[in-house]
Design goal:
7 helices; 320 residues; alpha/beta; 7-stranded mixed sheet; Double Stranded RNA Binding Domain; 6-stranded mixed sheet; Rossmann fold; 13 strands
């Protein structure tokens, strides 16, 4: 049984407040019943550098770029401190060149749909800032280049890159995000993937919190159970009767507000054990973001989204 394992158990870590989780200005105050817009979640990685003179500048440029992108009302930026913590936990060192596979893993761990990275290098009297926008879902890559002189500093180049990146994200969002499946399409795909395999009896228990409140009817647990049940797994009410036991915890928290809308971020962490190998522990986790008029509903929606993504992976991985 292989479910995107994290080699060592990871203690839950509360995600800090996300900067400026904003929505299009056209929504605010005009139609309170309009469906909530889902902001694009972006993670900015440190830039790689090629010379001693530029050493340390990659982190500074990335921090400035992240700060500038928070002004884009359609983006949610993953906190750079939290991004660094996640990469350290997963023993990943990413900067400069990032593969589509690495981008997908960072997206899974942080909830980022898009990664921004690049490199800084010198050529003659000019320095160059080359940035890349990488989709964590489709692997699509867009690039841009800005240059600056030593005397002018890299601030202007980063500002130029921020404008170009914002424009690219707006124009190519359809290429950066994976096509959304309907619930029926997803279940049909999963059933096809496990056709002819044995579907085990599964017990799922994942309590959750929103801030400091324990929440009844856990959304992530319910979503995982529904997916497994729809695919054909048998759900049982006790761990003793199960072939596979899935436990864990989940939480959501407010990430930002604008007008009458609130953005919430959720994280779900699970542990999987089986009767066949009780001494073996498999871990998976997922982060997601959602927006709604009510904070509790936004939190539930984010938890459901994270649970849905884990449930998709479990449905395939648990089949024998």
């Amino acid at each position: 049984m292989k479910i995107n394992p994290i080699i060592r158990p990871v203690a839950p870590a509360m995600f800090t407040l996300i900067l400026l989780a904003c929505l299009p200005a056209s929504i605010f105050g005009k139609n309170p019943n309009a469906p909530a817009y889902q902001p694009l979640t972006v993670a900015v990685l440190d830039f790689s550098t090629s010379t001693e003179e530029l050493k340390g500048k990659g982190g500074e440029a990335a921090s400035l770029l992240a700060g500038l992108l928070t002004a884009n009302e359609n983006l949610v930026l993953v906190e750079r401190a939290e991004l660094a913590s996640v990469l350290a936990e997963s023993e990943m060192t990413l900067s400069g060149t990032v593969s589509a596979e690495s981008a997908a893993k960072v997206g899974q761990l942080t909830g980022a749909k898009v990664l921004v990275t690049g490199r800084m290098f010198a050529s003659g009297d000019e320095n160059y800032l080359v940035t890349k926008v990488i989709s964590a879902e489709t692997g699509r890559v867009y690039g841009q280049t800005a240059k600056y002189t030593e005397g002018s500093g890299f601030g202007g180049a980063v500002e130029s890159a921020a404008r170009q990146i914002s424009q690219q994200l707006a124009e190519n969002v359809g290429e950066l995000l994976a096509k959304t499946e309907s619930a029926d399409e997803r279940i049909a795909r999963l059933r096809k993937s496990v056709a002819g395999k044995t579907l085990q009896k599964v017990f799922v228990e994942i309590p959750e919190e929103h801030l400091t409140r324990r929440v009844p009817d856990p959304a992530a647990q319910t979503e995982i159970q529904k997916i497994l049940q729809d695919v054909g797994y048998t759900l049982v009410t006790s761990s003793e009767a199960a072939d596979v036991v899935i436990t864990g915890e989940a939480f959501s928290e407010a990430a930002g507000r604008r007008g009458g809308l609130v953005s919430c971020r959720a994280r779900v962490e699970i542990k999987i054990t089986s009767k066949e190998s009780k001494d073996r522990l498999t871990i998976d986790r997922q982060t997601a973001v959602a927006v709604d008029l009510a904070e509790n509903i936004a939190g539930k929606a984010a938890l459901q989204s994270a649970g849905s993504q884990i449930g998709d992976r479990l449905a395939i991985a648990l089949a024998k």
